[in-house]
From TrEMBL:
Keywords: Membrane, Transmembrane, Transmembrane helix. The keyword Hydrolase does not apply. The chain crosses the membrane at residues 20-36, 43-65, 71-89, 101-121, 144-164, 171-188. This is HupE/UreJ family protein. InterPro entries: Put_HupE_UreJ. It holds the Pfam family HupE_UreJ_2. It comes from the Bacteria.
Length: 193
């Protein structure tokens, strides 16, 4: 197996690892207010998040940025909670400016999540001569893993809202409330306190 493929698979596995479900929760929260027909908006949103975490993942892996990991472990569930609360107060995607704000939030929160990945990736890279290819492969793997989560979330939403007849607003409120509760528990469990 080549180096690129190895790091690509590690990126996918890292996102889809149920033990590290914080990232899964965040992506579910990002997608909770969308349904299948919103796929372009979702793709832009997830890509904005990926760009954010790719930037800080690269900077932290190259040791250009160093942040206390206890802060990051606390801030990651905060980003999940803020996203869920935003969904609760605005359970439908708004047109125009509201969507742009969601993109900015996704990009900014991606910066925080990238710092959380950096220790993991740095330990994997060890003493690699060049980190560009492994970093690119890992980020692409993360993106593919996120798209798997997005697809599952949107398909379930599409089935429940489009076929079963669950109210779209109710779906967003229930999913966002569950995610918010889990994020609060994660914040309480951090070493930050």
């Amino acid at each position: 197996m080549g180096q690129f493929q190895l790091y690509f698979q590690l990126g996918i596995q890292h996102i889809l690892d149920i033990k590290g479900f914080d990232h899964i929760l965040f992506v579910v929260a990002l997608c909770a207010i969308y349904v299948t027909r919103d796929w372009k908006k979702i793709l832009i949103l997830v890509t904005a998040f990926t760009i954010g975490h790719s930037i800080t993942l690269a900077l932290a892996t190259l040791k250009l940025v160093k942040v206390n990991s206890d802060w990051i472990e606390f801030l990651i569930p905060v980003t999940i909670a803020v996203t869920a609360v935003s969904n609760i107060f605005s359970p439908k995607p708004s047109s125009g400016r509201g969507i742009q704000i969601n993109y900015v939030f996704a990009l900014f929160f991606g910066l925080i999540h990238g710092l959380g990945f950096s220790n993991y990736l740095r330990s994997l890279l060890g003493k690699e001569a060049s980190i560009f290819q492994p970093l690119l492969a890992f980020n692409l793997g993360l993106e593919v893993g996120q798209l798997v989560i997005v697809t599952i979330t949107v398909v379930v939403a599409g089935l429940l809202v489009g076929i079963v007849g669950v109210n779209r607003k109710d779906w967003a409120l229930v999913i966002s409330s569950i995610v918010l509760g889990m994020a609060i528990m994660m914040m309480i469990d951090t070493k930050f306190w």
